[in-house]
Automatic annotation (TrEMBL):
<dbReference type="GO" id="GO:0005737">
    <property type="term" value="C:cytoplasm"/>
</dbReference>
<dbReference type="InterPro" id="IPR006638">
    <property type="entry name" value="Elp3/MiaA/NifB-like_rSAM"/>
</dbReference>
<dbReference type="InterPro" id="IPR007197">
    <property type="entry name" value="rSAM"/>
</dbReference>
<protein>
    <submittedName>
        <fullName>Coproporphyrinogen dehydrogenase HemZ</fullName>
        <ecNumber>1.3.98.3</ecNumber>
    </submittedName>
</protein>
<dbReference type="GO" id="GO:0051539">
    <property type="term" value="F:4 iron, 4 sulfur cluster binding"/>
</dbReference>
<feature type="domain" description="Radical SAM core">
    <location>
        <begin position="141"/>
        <end position="376"/>
    </location>
</feature>
<dbReference type="GO" id="GO:0051989">
    <property type="term" value="F:coproporphyrinogen dehydrogenase activity"/>
</dbReference>
<dbReference type="InterPro" id="IPR058240">
    <property type="entry name" value="rSAM_sf"/>
</dbReference>
<keyword id="KW-0560">Oxidoreductase</keyword>
<dbReference type="InterPro" id="IPR023995">
    <property type="entry name" value="HemZ"/>
</dbReference>
<dbReference type="InterPro" id="IPR034505">
    <property type="entry name" value="Coproporphyrinogen-III_oxidase"/>
</dbReference>
<dbReference type="Pfam" id="PF04055">
    <property type="entry name" value="Radical_SAM"/>
</dbReference>
<dbReference type="GO" id="GO:0006779">
    <property type="term" value="P:porphyrin-containing compound biosynthetic process"/>
</dbReference>
<dbReference type="InterPro" id="IPR023404">
    <property type="entry name" value="rSAM_horseshoe"/>
</dbReference>
């Protein structure tokens, strides 16, 4: 059992996030994190014996002092367990933000590297990855214009709920009426979004969820027509629709996506192993994936992403190798490789004792199989993020062929541009590019509530945008 005591501060969240990946390595210990004036100290006790401690002196800069507090704790945990984390004491979901900040302050690359290695204690290969990704992202972010925004539209329905899912998503079966009511409410929000964006340039549009292609053909066409009617789709640099689950895709839907100017789609196998697909509740086969992928190519979709997950229950490195070999044969334009995360609202979390989770060293091997596979397909990493409770405390990486970077993925990660978000659970983020300050305007998560309270959502958005955007 691990006892944690905070003295002189209340950074519970940050301290717990540092300790969490170490809980498997510590049997019985008491941990104290102490802030006294600017002095940061961490201690580990076994019984009454102090077995490890670290101290560092902060200064008036609260952010820096807080970092030192977390760093001292990380250092005692490393010393006590003999285990270092690949991302050092970084716990945030957007590691590249630190690099962008340093780029903006004109810090030379070599000094950035040194800081990441020595201060944050990040492993060298992860430092290289961070810098490579940040440089790629810069090329996209530098093109952001002052009047530019991106649009997100959420469709919170899926055919079934995957084992690991924690998104706002409802199994679509027997929800005919609710889906219709949802589209009606969404139509109001899209019309509002159209008005708001009429004086702006739209850089990217992303329809995600859930699985937007769970809508039937008529519903999908209605949605695409609405988006085309209210937004300047043709001039947007990118228009993506997640066609995530192959069991929702028909030839007609792929044709509709093409007809309504969708330039990028995502067909997400997660794995190319039959048994795993069953185990995670996907209700489709690997053959279905190959079939819909070839339909998409036949119909002319020339920018197709595929999402994969490593560390799925029951999978070994050999299974991941098999997945990569099959993906390579399909030649997608980009892949996004997620490391399995045990999310709070997932079925997996509720039934964790039924599964054996993959250990960190095997996840590491899986990461190298997928990154090697991506390089062999001519792809490079272009975006990166982390989540809480990831196996081995690793990362998610998007790889793409040259010129196939997803603008939306970069914008949502780096938060340098306003994203107007529509639908249940969608959170609009208004970014002030001068100060990098971000204000959030959330919609309610629950679909029923979203439908019933749509007018209130619209008022909330209108008021929020009026307060935050001088041009509106
Ligand atoms: S397809 Fe995605 S959103 Fe839908 S249940 Fe599976 S993980 Fe969740």
């Amino acid at each position: 059992m691990v006892d944690i005591e905070l003295v002189g501060h209340e950074y519970h969240y940050e301290i717990e996030n540092i300790i969490k990946p170490y809980t498997g390595y510590i049997k019985d210990a008491s941990i104290r994190s102490i802030l006294k004036g600017n002095l940061c100290r961490a201690e580990i006790y076994e019984g009454d014996n102090l077995v490890s401690f670290k101290e560092e002196l902060g200064n008036e800069d609260q952010k820096y002092t807080k970092q030192l507090l977390i760093r001292t704790l990380y250092q005692v945990l490393c010393e006590f367990t003999g285990v270092k984390m690949p991302w050092g004491f970084l716990t945030g979901i957007r590691p590249t933000k630190i690099v962008h900040e340093m780029f903006e302050n004109n810090i030379p690359k070599e000094r950035i590297k040194k800081q990441l290695l020595e201060f944050y204690d990040i492993r060298e290969d992860k430092v290289e990855l961070m810098i490579k990704v940040a440089e790629k992202e810069r090329g996209i972010l530098e093109k952001n214009k002052a009047d530019e925004i991106s649009i997100y539209i959420g469709i919170p329905f899926c055919p079934t709920r995957c084992l690991y899912c924690s998104f706002t998503s409802y199994a679509i079966d027997h929800r005919e009426q609710q889906v219709e009511a949802y589209l009606e409410a969404l139509e109001k929000e899209i019309a509002f979004g159209g008005k708001y964006s009429s004086s702006k340039t739209i850089r990217s549009i992303y329809i995600g969820g859930g699985t937007p292609t769970s809508l039937n053909e008529e519903q999908l066409e209605r949605l695409l027509m609405l988006v085309n009617q209210h937004f300047n789709v043709k001039d947007a640099e990118e228009f993506t629709v997640e066609a995530g689950r192959p069991d929702t895709i028909t030839k007609r839907k792929l044709e509709l996506l093409k007809q309504y100017h969708v330039g990028r789609i995502s067909i997400n196998p997660q794995t190319m192993n039959e048994e795993t697909l069953l185990r995670i509740g996907r209700k489709h086969t690997t053959e279905d994936i190959v079939k819909v992928f070839s339909w998409a190519r036949e119909i002319g979709h020339s920018n197709i992403n595929m999402d994969l997950i490593i560390g799925l229950p029951g999978e070994s490195s050999r299974d991941v190798k098999n997945t990569m070999d099959k993906i390579k044969a399909l030649e997608p334009d980009s892949i996004t490789v997620h490391t399995m995360a045990i999310k709070r609202a997932s079925r997996l979390r509720e039934s964790l004792e039924e599964y054996t989770l993959t250990q960190a060293d095997e996840i590491e091997e899986m990461i190298s199989i997928t990154s090697q596979g991506a390089y062999e397909m001519g792809m490079e990493p272009y975006y990166l993020y982390r989540q809480k409770n990831m196996l081995g405390n690793f990362e998610n990486v998007g790889y793409c062929k040259p010129g196939k970077e997803s603008v939306y993925n970069i914008e949502i990660m780096e938060e340098k541009e306003t994203i107007l978000a529509l639908g249940a659970g969608a959170i609009t983020k208004v970014v002030d590019p001068k100060t990098n300050k971000i204000e959030r305007i959330p919609n309610v998560k629950n679909v029923e509530e979203y439908i019933n309270r749509i007018d209130e959502m619209l008022l909330r958005k209108q008021k929020g945008l009026k307060d935050l955007d001088n041009d509106f």
